[in-house]
Specification:
heterodimer, A: mainly alpha, two-stranded antiparallel sheet, 59% helix, B: mainly alpha, Cytochrome Bc1 Complex, Chain C, 2 domains
């Protein structure tokens, strides 16, 4: 914290901040006791913890001091009344949507439960159709020649397992796809995977209600798996084509905002 | 993209030179991993500072710190889906608590007491039909908003590096939301509910090893009856509300700690 900080501070104006933050990018070193000072007498894992935390804080300070990011004042609205009223308005709007739907499309109650009579149509709520559809993957359950054409597991087990595979696949995404790219154009492959998965959720839901879909059920089964692939490939092709011009634009805007050193 | 990330401090080399035992090594590795993502140091420091001089200041979010919220306003509608599902959850909780005054989870009688109570709510109770309608629609809206929220997070890359934990927490939350929906679907004890329950039991039974145990735990047996309805009721009005409310709070808290992942 040398004299150049003082001049920038004067430029920003001390009174302008209303968010409770200080104008200094880094808390002054002499006010806050370091972790080591606080925990000198500790031993073992606790001591290691504080040694690391101290390093970590120093790293933070170094990075912020090196940063060339342009900090500028923006016009902000105070929490009360502006933000609060705005949020109340948005909340009332959403609650209004729910009330509108409930008053115009009231629910239905069917015949009482009867264990001795299986109804023609058994369905969960719409949001479980995809899971219900995964139970109908029997034709994809591989038959092994080694087992003499026997299936490795029952079709039912296979269907339940497919549910776990879906959840697992979604869970590993952040560990496979890393980096700074945020927009679909920047990563056509992952966008294609996403669109494919989204379309698959739709088609597998259709498969779940196949007796209500006016279509040959074999065709529907094939389309369930073909359409997502087609949609994914289309997405990939389109985004790949868009990419070059888009990245040029993005970079230009980026460097206008933060000129290179 | 075209900017090189700034160099991190080389914590690995530091670990090497420390010559640690395996326990210490694993501990520090986990600590560094979590701290890199959640900046534990900032929050521990705030607690410490509170202890040393009583002076609480909320940490500024990433967006506030770097004045970013004027740069991506056109994404805002998509960023409201998370709060939309939270609002729907609150509406469902309120209407559900009111419905709970009149509902009884009993299969006794013909038709069952549960079914009779739903019929009573829908035909005799003042405002009851609307109440059930609100509860049902807020549940539908919540599930829909949660799905769309996940899709938004996927396509804006908001699940990326420092936010993996929250993505996984989100997957747990979406599963619990579906479970919430399923348990609620069974409560009216009509034909749809009964046979949806039957499918659930059969799904559980087809899981190897733990299938039968899970079926008995959740559905209270292999054929549906009073134990099933009772368990679905307790899951729906007692267990899940606590768990889901807590997890939603943690989910939102982590977003607050890490800042909104705005598109760059």
């Amino acid at each position: 914290m040398t004299d150049d900080t003082d001049s920038t501070e004067a430029d920003r104006g001390e009174g302008a901040r209303t968010d409770g933050g200080s104008n200094l990018p880094v808390p002054p070193d002499d006010e806050t006791p370091t972790w080591r000072e606080r925990k000198e007498r500790r031993v073992g894992l606790a001591r290691l913890t504080y040694e690391y935390l101290e390093r970590s804080r120093r790293e933070d300070e170094d990075l912020r001091e090196q940063s060339t990011y342009l900090e500028r004042d923006v016009l902000g609205f105070p929490t009360w009344p502006h933000e609060t009223i705005r949020n109340l308005a948005i909340t009332s709007f959403f609650v209004g949507i729910i009330l509108f739907l409930s008053s115009t499309l009231p629910p239905h109650i069917g015949a009482p439960a009867n264990p001795s009579q299986t109804p023609a149509i058994i369905l969960p709520d719409w949001y479980l159709y995809w899971s219900f559809g995964l139970l109908k993957l029997g034709p994809l359950n591989p038959e092994l020649a080694v087992l003499g054409g026997e299936k490795l597991m029952k079709d039912r087990t296979y269907g339940v397992l497919a549910n776990l595979v879906v959840f697992g696949a979604i869970a590993v995404v952040p560990f496979l796809n890393k980096g700074n790219a945020r927009r679909p154009v920047e990563e056509p492959f992952w966008a294609a995977i996403g669109v494919g998965g989204f379309v698959f959720a739709f088609t597998i839901s259709l498969l779940a209600i196949k007796n209500l879909v006016p279509m040959d059920s074999h065709l529907l089964f094939d389309l369930t798996f073909l359409l997502p692939i087609v949609a994914g490939a289309l997405t990939y092709a389109v985004l790949k084509t868009m990419r070059e011009g888009y990245m040029y634009d993005l970079n230009r805007r980026y460097y206008r905002l933060r000129p290179p050193k | 993209m075209s900017l090189e990330p700034a160099d991190d401090h080389d914590h690995d080399a530091w670990l090497e030179e420390k010559d640690l035992t395996p326990v210490e090594n694993i501990f520090l590795t986990v600590l560094i991993w979590a701290d890199k993502r959640l900046r534990l140091v900032d929050y521990l420091e705030i607690l410490e500072t509170l202890y040393y001089r009583i002076n609480l200041q909320m940490p500024r979010s990433h967006t506030e710190q770097y004045n970013l919220d004027n740069k991506f306003w056109y994404w805002y509608p998509l960023y409201s889906l998370g709060s939309f599902s939270t609002i729907a959850y609150v509406v469902a909780a309120i209407s559900g608590a009111l419905l709970g005054f009149y509902y009884a989870p009993a299969t006794a009688g013909d038709p069952s007491a549960a079914y009779n109570q739903i019929t009573f709510i829908m035909t005799d109770l003042n405002f009851g039909f609307m109440l059930r309608s609100i509860h049902r629609w807020s549940a539908q809206v919540m599930v829909a908003a949660v799905f769309l929220h996940m899709i938004r997070v996927y396509f804006t890359g908001a699940y990326k590096e420092p936010r993996e934990l929250n993505w996984i927490l989100g997957i747990i939350l979406i599963s619990l939301t579906l479970l919430f929906g399923y348990t609620g679907y069974l409560l009216p004890w009509d034909q749809l509910a009964f046979w949806a329950g039957q499918i659930g039991v059969e799904m559980a039974l087809s899981v190897p090893l733990i299938g039968e145990w899970a079926a008995q735990l959740i559905w209270g047996g292999f054929s549906l009856g009073q134990p099933t309805l009772q368990r679905m009721y307790i899951l729906h009005v007692f267990l899940l509300p606590f768990v889901v409310t807590t997890l939603i709070a943690v989910h939102i808290g982590v977003v607050w700690m890490q800042g909104i992942a705005e598109p760059h």
